[in-house]
Amino acid sequence: MKHPLSDRINSLPVSQTLAMAAKARELRAEGKDIIGLSLGEPDFNTPDFIKDAAIEAINQNYNSYTPVDGYAELKEAICVKFKRDNNLVYKPSQIVVSTGAKQSIANIAQVLLNPGDEVLLPAPYWVSYSAIATLCEATYVEIPSSIENDFKITPEQLEASITPKTKMIFFNSPNNPSGTIYSETEYRALAAVLEKHPRVFILSDEIYEHVNYDSKPFSFASIESMYDRTITVNGLAKAFAMTGWRVGYIGAPEWIAKACTKMQGQITSGTNCIAQRAAITAVLAPVSKIQFMVDEFKTRRDIIIGLLREIDGFKVNVPEGAFYVFPDVSDFFGKTINGVTINNASDFSLFILEKANVATVTGDAFGAPNCIRLSYAASELQIREATKRIKEALG
């Protein structure tokens, strides 16, 4: 029976990262020993100093509705953080706190995009970017890259992709799924192109900002000519191991911030009160308080890269941030292994799940059909066992 669902929901794809996680849970329920390298979630607990702030907020009886755009104290703390970490000067009126950075991004898209507008997505890109554009009845345009250039686009590619319909471009550095970090020089070169197209707005997703190893990320809005049309998105999920707390925020031109507040006021209203009080402590904390997690991620990165390079057919680069590795597996396409023909990355990812009991995510979901994503937000023991199983399954 076909249910009378809206065209809007029928046009949306299922999140491939969540779908793979659900499939892994299903197989575990059947008794299979599945190692999950599909979800982008730190395997650390939220640091105690943040949990203590939440407990204190409960004891102080924070339990009422919150302002739609966030507590004033939190917005002021975010302004301090932006200046300290990114050399960005925002006023509290330019800050909007939301229920996760995903809502922040959805708000921005909803208030800026009209049907028929084009959104440029440098590939690979986070799976929800394209779906959010679709939900706004906009068209997303992928700008391809490859592992040979560390998954970065060039100014020439950007210039060639801009049309009279282009309204936005989404940047994400450090990048999910590739771990790529654009340098200041690279971003300034892209900004030089965008300076010629003043109607194009920039969404700069910096959620993995603090999970960097070899180079400090650069905020796009700190380029003077880009400040007035860049929306900086950040949150607490990744660096602070607070995925379930659901706190994201933006720094934006005031008129965009007001529009996002208006939109949010009709959807979810204000973010959870206890999470916000804890967030004040988190954003004001020195980065050194969470460095132990970043150091551990770097150790795991080096381990998984070394192990994957031992598998014939895997092409691997060195991600500079986030906690993913994004190998090119196109060497396996068209081959039959253990009776299974692999035609694309989706086939490969499914093969690894069924034959090696390791959950990954196909690169098709990220606009990079030659790759798969593996998260190393897992224990060293799990990483070593997972790569061992993959190598054995590929024979």
From TrEMBL:
Q: Name one Pfam family in it.
A: Aminotran_1_2
Q: Which PANTHER family match?
A: ASPARTATE AMINOTRANSFERASE
Please name the source species.
Polaribacter ponticola
Q: Does the keyword Transferase apply?
A: yes
Similarity field: Belongs to the class-I pyridoxal-phosphate-dependent aminotransferase family.
Q: What is the name attached to this protein's record?
A: Aminotransferase
Keyword hit for Transferase: yes
Enumerate the UniProt keywords alphabetically.
Aminotransferase, Pyridoxal phosphate, Transferase
User: EC number(s) of the enzyme?
Assistant: 2.6.1.-
